[in-house]
Amino acid sequence: MGRLKIYNSDIGKEEIERSREVKFLSLSAEDRFFELIKLNELAVLMNGGKPLKVPQGKGIVIRKPNI
Q: Nearest 5°: phi and psi at 26?
């Protein structure tokens, strides 16, 4: 699991974003993928075990363009 970093108000948002970007870009492609999977699992966990999006069961919807 990742680590929780608590920043005080002395650090600007740009610096926090820059440090997160540097950490993310330093990971290998495989590690980036697994971090994304962990983030999705956390989102589902925080949503009460339900996925954030659910298929509507309509299949592929093809619409005729209005001309």
A: -80, -10
CA nearest to 20, candidates 8, 5, 30, 31: 5
What's the whole-number average pLDDT of the chain? 86
H-only helix segments in 1-28: 13-25
CB atoms within 10 A of CB 35: 14
Global pTM value: 0.56
What is the C-alpha to C-alpha distance for residues 50 and 67, in angstroms, rounded to an integer? Answer: 40
Residue 15 near residue 24, CB atoms below 8 Å:
no
